[in-house]
Amino acid sequence: MSVTAALPPEQLQQAVTRSRKVSASRWRLLVRTPGRVISLVIVLFFTLMAIIGPYLYPKNLPINSNDIYAPPSTAHLLGTDFEGTDILALIITGARYVLLAAFIAALVTLVIGTAAGLFAGYYPRSAGRPIMRVTDFVLAIPGVPLLMVLATIWSFGSPQQMGLVLGITGWGGIARAVRAQTLSLRERGFVEAARGLGIPGRRVIATEILPNVAPYVSMNLMMQLTGFIYTEVGLFFLGVVKYSSSNWGVMLNNAVFQADALTSTRALSYLLSPLICILLLTISLVTLANVGDEIFNPRLRRI
Amino acid sequence: MKLTRWIVVKLITGLIMIWVVASAMFALLHDLPGNPAATRYSELVTHGDTPQQARAATAAMYGFVPNQPLIQQYGHYLWQLLHFNLGQSIAEQGIPVSHIVFDAFPWTVILCLSGVLASFLIGVTLGVAAALRRMTKTGDGITWFGAILNGIPTYIIATLLFYVFATEWALFPQGGTVSIQYDPGFNAGYLGSLVTHAILPVIAYTLAGVGAWVLTTKASVISVLGDDFILAAELRGIRAWTVARYIVRNAMLPLFTILAIAFGLMFSGAVFIEDVFNYPGLGQLMINSLSTSDYPVLSGAFLLIIVAVIAANFLADLCYPLIDPRVRRS
Amino acid sequence: MTAPAKETETSTVAVRVRDLTVCFRTQEGSLPAVSRVNLDLVRGQITGLVGESGSGKSTLALTLLNAVPAPGQVAGSVEIDEVGDVLELRKGALRKVRGASIGYVFQASQNSLNPLKRVGKQLLDLGRSHGERDSRALVGRARALLDDMGLDATRVLSSYQHELSGGMRQRVGIVFALLLNAHVLILDEPTTALDMLSQAQVMEIIRRVHESRHLTTLIISHDMSVIGDLADRMAVMYAGRVVEEGPTASVLATPRHPYTRALLTAMPRITGDIAGAKALPGRPPDLTSIPRKGCVFEPRCPLATPDCLSEEPPDTYAGDHRFACFVTAGEAQ
Q1: Class of residue A92 by CB neighbours under 10 A (exposed 0-12, middle 13-18, buried 19+)
Q2: How many CB pairs under 8 A join B and C?
Q3: Pairing of β C233-238 and β C46-50
């Protein structure tokens, strides 16, 4: 920022200390409660699992038809599934799909939703109207039924395809939020000044509005990830999408519908392992998303 | 009056949305891999039907006639739709899709509405409490609870509910709509069984939706609490009870618009809940028709869901000027 | 703080503020928004309170209703005729005083009315909250007040806030403040956010209403000209302190505090050289940058001496006119 060059040394020092204080205080928010630290650890743990997991095991996990639905033991920490495959191995290798697809979906919604929101908010009377119509339309349609219908014409089994489809159907929320922010930012002094200087709209959006919207959006991403994990696992749970290798949603599906885990205790660990993993991941992401809330709403901060 | 013009615009927008979806369904049915309509047609012909008979049969099933120019097929399809003719089921030969779909409709809608209502009432109450006690442990606890519930997938809630309350502690029946031992009718046994079978699914809907209401209500109340007129009312010595009414009514306003969206979201949840609890609603219908490739039923069910959601949104839009005087223009 | 040398007769003072301090507890410590203020509002007179944003004038006004928001903490006393020390009152008694004994008028730009309810209904809420059971009489009084303000009573009573213009809202705010016959009236920036014509109208109404009802009025404004026109007495606030106070004519003709002088110099006049108007360099302090020791105005004061850094200046009295400055205290009258 060129403004700092013009400040006398003491004030410059103050400004630097102030900004350091801000990021320090934001970090402090993140680790303020033990709950948040645990959540951070859990998310990092699963991310690590997703990245490294598949390298720890051979591509095709061993099956053992003599040992199906075995309860947890020293050999198989979480028991085995319907083919005798170690559940722990399934969980570890299955993490990658879950996180990768969610991440890709989040990226896609980020790009489409932010762009749509920025333009709709900056040109509310021209481009904004049709964009909002489309956004409202996309938002109104219930996601899961839509995805089921799409599944008839396209089998989006791989994580990249899944992420893409989820992203294309799910950008409505971000678009709405970004549009609201853009609308209010548009009236602020610095934006009016930029427009007054004759800077073209696209540049104003990129240089003035986008940086102000970015932090809010990136925090929103956390909640988005939760939603995408929910949906992709859900689609496998329903058996709507076919996928070959291991995957938490497929495990849940098999447990409930093939192993009758709901009505008998036979394959309990097969049911609970992916279930608890999803729960842990979801709760951790939600807890961390709360931090974003406090950052953007200082009134909520405790003194 | 500007108001009626606004209503008409909303109505037309809704109808256009339905039309877009219906057209998409047409494109879907038409361009399905393997082109089942054409396959069916040739099947019938090889089985001895005359081309006319085959055409009529396929038309009855899919809603449009193969081998005709696309525009004509499209027109025929739309015309059938306006007469509520959604074609015929493939899996269950000859049965009209509309019958299947409208049979399933009440099972979904009644539970959905109950769930929306319950989650709204509970969620809003908790949300107001969370806002009023926002710096205390109670308030934070409620908020945390709501945030977590909001994030937990519906099928996990449903699965856990089923496992804990239907299997572990067999308090409730294990799925289905009603015990077969009762004859349908207005007798206590039948109705009682309906209710006991519905309890867990409704609880599932409620738990799935309550979190979002808690969070949204809390945010809305907090924002109203910061408004000038609340301070002004307190400085004028207005009674606490009256101020509370001011706060609640102003906070409820934006929530009302969300009610319709919540109804739409419930349909997504319906798919999972009906799957787990074996409820023959639209959700289960979609799942089954997908696995049996019964595309007319699939698209019919989807279309009905869309119509229901758009209708709900339209009704909500209609009621909004009644509660917010700022939107009324004379 | 020593008591003023010339104590005004108790019966002529309607509001007596003594040693008032308002602190806000924040992450950076306890920050004083108002610091050891003494102020008297003479009965039947209009007192003006002038200051820049952040000078503490609005906070001071809120203490008259014991309405400082958390995390603020108030110390001192605010004694009001027929009410006692407002700061000692607890919930029920305090609620009764607000609106019935003291009326507070918000700025027009603020939404001081419930946007979802008609004005008439809200006036009834006001009356009923204070035990007025006779709705008809209440509405009658409201109509009379509205007519007095030059408004169409029937139309306004059935309107929503968003249907009223800024000037109308300001006048409706005054009606709310006076409906229950309060004897103290506080107006926070009554002319800000209004166009010139509406400003003149509102000022005229304030003057008329003050006289006909024999009120004790406090007007808060950053606009010196409004205070100069309406107020009988005026007080100047800076960084939470009253730096100068006295009869308006006296303060404007012979300002004794350097800040008041700077304010007056900064105002361009219609006649004379416009270059004569000089802005005061620097910015008013925010809560975190108020000097802890010595005179609060020292950083910007053209007359500052090393003495000004060590101690806060005490009040000096020139007749009915007091000010707090070491340097100008030594000047000839």
Answers
A1: buried
A2: 68
A3: parallel
Give one DSSP letter per residue of B18-59, joined into a string. HHHHHHHHHHHHHS-TT-HHHHHHHHHHHTT--HHHHHHHHH
Quick one: pLDDT band at residue A20, thresholds 50, 70, 90? Answer: low
Q: What is the distance between the alpha carbons of residues C180 and C128, in angstroms, rounded to a whole number?
A: 11
Task: Give the model confidence (pLDDT) of C141-150 as tens digits.
Answer: 999 999 988 8
Identify all chain A residues contacting C25, using CB atoms and an 8 Å cutoff. 303
Beta partners for residue C26, in sequence order:
C29
Report residue B254 CA to chain centroid gap: 20
Contact A148 B162 (CB under 8 A): no
CB contact under 8 A, B31 and A148: no
Which residues does C62 contact at the CB level (< 8 Å), separation at least 6? Answer: C68, C69
* Closest residue, chain A, to B302 (C-alpha): A145
CB C322 within 8 A of CB C37: no
- Cα distance between residue A198 and residue A216, in whole Å: 27
pTM of the model: 0.79
**Bridge partner residues of C78 (DSSP):** C17
- If you measure CA to CA, which chain B residue comes closest to A153? B32
Identify the pLDDT of residue C1: 40
Kindly report the nearest CA distance between residue C28 and chain A, in angstroms. 10
Tokens coding A295: 């950052």
List the single residue in C with minimal CA-CA distance to B241.
C129
What residue type is assigned to position C143 of the chain?
R
- The interface pTM score, or ipTM, of the predicted complex is 0.84
Yes or no: say if C15 and C71 are a contact pair by the CB < 8 Å rule: no
Range scoring the smallest mean pLDDT among A104-108, A186-190, B98-102, C212-216: A186-190
Task: Note whether A286 contacts B154, CB cutoff 8 Å.
Answer: no
Q: Which residues contact C133 (CB under 8 A, 6 or more apart)?
A: none
* B130 within 8 A of B214, measured Cβ to Cβ: yes
The predicted-structure confidence for A228-237, as pLDDT tens digits, reads as follows: 988 888 888 8
Interface of A with C in 284-303 (CB under 8 A): 303
Locus of tokens 């618009």: B257
Q: What would you report as the CA-atom Rg of chain A, rounded to the nearest whole angstrom? A: 24
Nearest to C289 by CA among A213, B53, A14, A225: A14
Contact B236 C104 (CB under 8 A): yes
Strand ordering across the sheet containing C216-221: C102-105, C184-188, C216-221, C46-50, C233-238, C241-247, C321-323, C316-318
Residue of C1, C66, C65 whose CA lies nearest to C241 = C1
Query: Which candidate, B217, B168, B207, B204, places its Cα nearest to that of B279?
Result: B204
Instruction: Test A238 with B271 for CB contact under 8 angstroms.
Output: yes
Q: For residues C23 and C31, what is the distance between their CA atoms, to the nearest angstrom?
A: 5
Residue C20: CB atoms within 10 A of its CB come to 24
- List CB contacts of B96: < 8 A, sequence separation 6 or more: B85, B86, B87, B88, B89
Question: What mean pLDDT is predicted for residues B141-150?
Answer: 88
